[in-house]
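Design request, tokens follow.
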């Protein structure tokens, strides 16, 4: 019986070691792929983003919590961007002893001007909580299908309707739903999960294609 217990503990320890090594190997593979993509595009990669997340207060960030890691910066289609992996550890309940890490790929892109806040967040139970955290009323852009897919909030309804004209709304309806917002002179987009080359390139392209369709008159709406 004792021998069986020893074997079970040995097997468990071995499984843990194997799991850790697989995780380390996978992480090295992701890092190598990201550096390779960065070299191909002329981007820069740094390991730590420091206090970068303190610049923003809205989703997906929690005030005073989380860290930016694996920061990638450069240009995509003539627009400057910074992307990073936002890691935030939170306890599932107030009395829980262990915090659960939450990871988001966050991509920011420079806008032509500082504009009023505008947020377009896909509708689902979790994201609805984030939408309410903005503490501004949801807007109707005049398209029922789009409104069923995404919740729109803005500090300036006129600016929101200027951006979300039919051409832009029709374009967004043809794409998979994603979360994005304008915050000052920055556009932010975020997705759950890790920062990976293919996901980053796809998100950068989606952001650039959206901005290409925003009417020029929208950038004349300055943030108050």
């Amino acid at each position: 019986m004792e021998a069986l217990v020893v074997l079970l503990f040995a097997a468990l320890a071995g499984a843990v070691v194997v799991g850790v090594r697989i995780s380390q190997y996978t992480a090295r593979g992701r890092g190598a792929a990201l550096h390779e993509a960065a070299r191909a595009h002329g981007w820069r990669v740094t390991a730590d983003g420091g206090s970068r997340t303190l610049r923003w207060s809205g989703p997906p960030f929690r005030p005073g919590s989380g860290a930016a890691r694996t920061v990638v910066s450069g240009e995509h289609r003539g627009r400057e961007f910074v992307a990073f992996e936002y890691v935030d550890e939170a306890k599932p309940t107030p009395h829980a002893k262990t915090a659960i890490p939450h990871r988001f790929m966050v991509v920011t892109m420079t806008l032509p001007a500082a504009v009023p806040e505008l947020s377009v967040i896909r509708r689902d139970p979790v994201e609805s909580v984030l939408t309410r955290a903005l503490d501004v009323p949801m807007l109707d852009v005049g398209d029922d299908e789009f409104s069923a897919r995404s919740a729109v909030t803005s500090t300036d309804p006129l600016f929101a309707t200027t951006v979300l004209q039919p051409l832009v709304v029709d374009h967004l309806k043809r794409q998979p739903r994603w979360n994005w917002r304008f915050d000052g002179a920055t556009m932010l987009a975020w997705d759950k999960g890790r920062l990976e080359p293919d996901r980053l390139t796809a998100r950068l392209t989606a952001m650039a294609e959206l901005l290409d369709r925003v009417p020029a008159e929208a950038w004349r709406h300055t943030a108050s």
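Comment from the thread starter after seeing the answer: thanks! The first helix runs from residue 2 to 41.
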